[in-house]
Amino acid sequence: PSVPRHANRLVNEKSPYLLQHAHNPVDWYPWGQEAFDKAKKENKLIFLSVGYSTCHWCHVMEEESFKNKEIGEIMNKNYVCIKVDREERPDVDKVYMTFVQATSGGGGWPMSVWLTPDLKPFAGGTYFPPEDGVHRVGFRTVLLRIAEQWKENKDALLENSQKILEALLHVSEVRVQGQESPPPSKEVMATCFQQLSNSYDEDYGGFSKSPKFPTPVNLNFLFTYWALHRTTPEGAQALQMALHTLKMMAHGGIHDHIGQGFHRYSTDQHWHVPHFEKMLYDQGQLAAAYSRAFQISGDRFFADVVQDILLYVSRDLSDQAGGFYSAEDADSYPTAASGEKREGAFCVWAAEEIRALLPDPVEGATEGTTLGDIFMHHYGVKETGNVSPMQDPHQELKGKNVLIVRYSPELTAARFGLEPGRLGALLQEGRQRLSAARAQRPRPHLDTKMLAAWNGLMISGFAQAGVALGEQGYVSRAARAAAFLRRHLFDPASGRLLRSCYRGEDDSVEQSAVPIQGFLEDYVFVIQALFDLYEASLEQGWLEWALQLQHMQDKLFWDPKGFAYFSSGADDPSLLLRLKNDQDGAEPAANSVTVTNLLRAACYSGHTEWVEKAGQILTAFSERLQKIPIALPEMARATAVFHHTLKQVVICGDPKGEDTKEMLRCVHSVFSPNKVLMLADGDSAGFLYRQLPFLASLERKDGKATAYLCSNFACSLPVTSPQELRGMLCP
């Protein structure tokens, strides 16, 4: 279009989500002083809208309301309007989501909140349709009513907002209450296991009927529970629950069989019809969970899924400078000529499309069988589409198929009279042809912002996969991403992490004019990643950086009065509350992961005050851990690691020697939730020897690579055979 479009202040932002709204008729401001000053000066209410770029209902509300000229005029006349990308500012999102959940009983995005000029919330909700309906008030009506209230009853409204804030402060506080010791690990683990097995779906795996989320935190808990109860029926059951869930997810439509990787969640009980966005944090955590499943079971099926996830991330979510992008959207244009986007358009298939792509007769199969017949049978494709209308309220998937593995290879082969050995190659040929056809479709929107926290989760995924699958390439990819973080998301002058950076015009990496400082989760997930990367690569530089970041995290976020860490720093006056997240959800809560980080940090440094801090966090969350540990499975898991004390596995040897490598392979092949690996290479001037003087007393026996198992800096007798070492790691 030759006419320059109207632009608001968001045009100067870097976040893909904010840029999506830069040409709305709404006079949007980013979160910041300019907007706050305007609200105060003009004595106007603030309308705050929070979302993220791959959020389906955010797109809907923008199309219906924020692109509507009349609604835009009402907003501009009565409010200072602020737009926030929750992935850039999880702190702002959390404060107001706490309010919305407390006052409306539900939450989600887009989040719509009305604030007084001094940023106190007094009304809020999520998605509003533009006009009044039978069951819901329309957005236009709400805007006008609230503006009217502000004119008529300003004082009552201000007083009310103050009361709300005080109540929020009270309910959201997590702190030590009189009790001085961490909760008993055995009871916490037993209760959490019980609560998970009560909500477990025996048939399809997972922990609810529908919608179904991948929740890697639950699976990690179950793996740890199994490792500590290997010989009991409950231990066996825990492992079975985790492996079955991972298998069913990999067969399901939540797994992209053509383009690899996993979608966000399933709308049904069978893992069949997903919401199609793909998030970096899911790929990172699932790569780690499937790696553990392979490490424990030895079943190649799980290793194949790991490779599938990492192929997707390397190909579609990787920046050339080494960082990882945030997400791919669910909605896209069905064809280049389409006028409107549809959910899942990039991923779904009509039966006739598949027939046309796979017409070849298959030799050795029942007379007249085509490759299409075999493929459609195996993946549950139906002529009229395989999505039930219940899963498709907007009829966007009518007549389409979401691929889902319906049969074992043996059953599909038998159905068409094939040798079972031939099926794999036929299905792969089918997938490759569909993949080539899909590459011709318009791609969904890619959110190219790069977040420290999510990059941390992905680095852990690559590092753990490298270790479990013995793939050096994955470890190198993790190291490249860690070097990227160091270069683009770390300020060496202040020693602080930054939250985000962005892909610029010419594929360069850009930073916003005022960079967003890292939050607790950025430190915690990056520190975890650096420990995982050290164990995979044995490069001590990553360890040194992790410990520096841990000191900085203590300084910025620790709550010396109530214990545990705040999610955000103390230096932002626009934040009304400093909160502590108490839920392990799609991502684990930062305080949960930091317990294990602190224990690992103490093992690598000898700083025992970190062990004390870990205990204080568990103490602060004690009540929740004892009553509903299912809300904090990652922290429940950490209570066991705390209780059983981490074992330092020290390998004394030459990193390049074959005997050393053999010992390392042995350590890497065993899943043990409470081991910390270190290599004593004999370099007494190196970082580890300076941190841990006791290493100097450990020697190579008969000049061979030698392993010691140490706990609280006291060590076992030396062993030089991988078999003996394995026996010590799996008592």
From TrEMBL:
GO terms (BP aspect): carbohydrate metabolic process
SUPFAM superfamilies: Six-hairpin glycosidases, Thioredoxin-like
Superkingdom field: Eukaryota
The name this protein goes by in its record: SPT20 protein
Encoding gene per record: Spata20
A Pfam family hit: Thioredox_DsbH
Organism for this UniProt entry: Rissa tridactyla
Spermatogenesis-associated protein 20-like TRX domain ranges (all copies): 8-168
